[in-house]
C-alpha cells in the first residue's frame, strides 16, 4: 500500500473510534453503573475490532509506519 493511502486508512481508523470514546463520560453521567459497564465493554470491543482489523493490519504490512504513529500520538495526543 502506498504511503498516502496508508495514512488515510490509519487516520480514518483513529477518527472512527473518537465518537465512541466520547460516549463514555455521557454514559457515566446518565446510566446506571451496570448499564455503563455493559456499554463500556461494548465500546471497548468495537474499538479493539477497528484496531485489529485496520490499524494492526496496516502496521503488519508497513511496519515502518508504527514508529511514526507513536511519534504523532506522543507529540499531539492523537494521529492527525
Beta-strand proportion: under 5%
Output the structural class: mainly alpha
Oligomer: single chain
How much helical structure, as a percent, in the residues? over 70%
Shape: elongated
Number of helices: 3
Which sheet architecture does the biggest sheet show? Answer: none
Distance between the amino and carboxyl termini: 19 Å
Number of strands: 0
Order of helices and strands: HHH
The poorly predicted ranges are none
Give the C-alpha Rg: 15 Å
How many discrete domains?
Answer: 1
Mean pLDDT: 93
Summarize the structure.
The chain is an all-alpha fold and 80 residues long.
Topology diagram in text:
Layout: H1 3-30, H2 33-61, H3 65-76
Helix pairs in contact: 1-2
Which descriptors apply to this entry?
86% helix, single chain, 0% strand, elongated, mainly alpha
Explain what you see:
It is a single chain. The protein contains three helices and no strands. The radius of gyration is 15 Å and the shape is elongated. It is mainly alpha-helical and 80 residues long. It has one domain. Helix 1 packs antiparallel against helix 2 (33-61).
